[in-house]
Amino acid sequence: MKKLWITSIAAVVALIGVPPSARAQALPVPGYEAAKDLPGAKELPDPNMTYKVVFDIGKAAPKIDDVNPGLATVARYLNTLAKNGVPADHQKIAVVFHQGGTEIVQNNEAFKARNDGHDNPNIALIQSLKKAGVDFRVCGQAVLGSKIDPKTIQPEIELDLWALTTIVNLELRGYVHVGN
Predict the structure, then answer these.
(1) Count: domains in the chain
(2) Can you tell me the mean pLDDT for 101-115?
(3) In which domain, by residue range, is 124 found?
(4) Is residue 31 part of a domain?
(5) What DSSP character marks residue 56?
(6) Exposed, middle or buried: residue 76 (CB in 10 Å: 0-12, 13-18, 19+)?
(7) Residue among 66, 134, 65, 142 at smallest CA distance from 103
(8) What distance in Å separates the CA atoms of residue 132 and residue 99, rounded to the nearest whole number?
(9) For residue 180, what pLDDT is reported?
(10) What is the value of pTM for the model shown?
């Protein structure tokens, strides 16, 4: 009984040091930090707002074995929203791949065939982000220009006519455009 009581007190003491927003909601994308807390910061995510954001990924990672930095930014942003208490149903996040960012939409087999046997380092993060509710799109014109077989596109990603059309349509639906 005494051991249970001490364990309970230790758990309560441990939670006191954790901000309420972090206790309220687990981070949706494992392995990626949220933005660090900054005492006195004026603008913070607002749990009462709905965040409609389209991230534009038009560049490749600096190295073939690196996760695309744009995807890492999306993960950090989602985790920051969650850490600050923004409910999942208030997070409407889309990612549009085009230009130099197109190649990462391929399944591992196709990616390896085009990249000297290198695995696609983005697949696990794309799957985690999709599980967290992110909507993925790829530019059909970039797919054609890169000679990517649409059958090799990862199942989490939808093929659209053109990135420009997708981004404009989402903006007209109230999404904020972040990226290139």
Answers:
(1) 1
(2) 98
(3) 49-179
(4) no
(5) E
(6) middle
(7) 142
(8) 25
(9) 66
(10) 0.85
